[in-house]
What we know:
two-stranded parallel ribbon
Amino acid sequence: MIALAKLDQLELLFCTFSEIHLPQVVYTEATCNQYRPDAQLITHFVKDNSRVSVHTDLKSDEFVVFGVMLDEGEIQALALATKMRCGVLMDERLGRIVAKQHNIPVVGLMGILFNAKFQGAIPSVKPLIIILVEDNYRLSDKVLELVLARAGE
């Protein structure tokens, strides 16, 4: 979400998701420094377009497994996705692995950009990826090549 805000492209989430829900801990983490323009954009986007969910119960064994391996934001995102029976936006490698192990559909930022291009919301993914890389967004050469090839760029 932060990366999309840095691109001023939060609305691209709707190219993949029909509704946007996020855990309070993720919202707080993404918006705690309101001096950052991306935090301000997320605050306004969430207020107008999504729902923030309070702490999801983590007492079940399933979420304890998440807790051993992931941070609180990832735990809460996976718990919320499980509760709502929906997919999750996650780029963290370990979080994606755990999501897949628990049959939680997962999409990352590159998937959001890819979907947006093929729905006509953006003309190209490459300029946005270049901005992210210049802003120190970590993206392997392999993933970059794959995304650009699939996007026909």
